[in-house]
Amino acid sequence: MRRALAQAQQLAEAAGVELGPVRSIVEQGGQPPTPYRAEADIAQRAAVPIQPGTQELSVTVEVVHDIA
Fold this sequence. Notes:
By secondary structure, this protein is of the alpha+beta class. It has a domain at about 1-30. It has two helices and two strands. The chain has helices at about 1-15, 40-45; strands at about 20-30, 60-65. The two termini are about 20 Å apart.
C-alpha cells in the first residue's frame, strides 16, 4: 500500500494534478487458506521439519484515486 501511494503521488505530480481520495482498492493474488485433514496428516507433518521464514506470499494491490 505504501508503494502504491508513493507511485500514485509521483504520477500525479508528473501530470501536474493532485491526488483525491481513494476510490477503490483491489487485492489480487495471494493464496487462500488451505484446508487439511488433521488426523491423516499428523504423522506426515511430524516427520517433516518446518523451517521458519521459508514461505513467501506475493500480493498485488491496485489502488484507484480520484484526481482533485
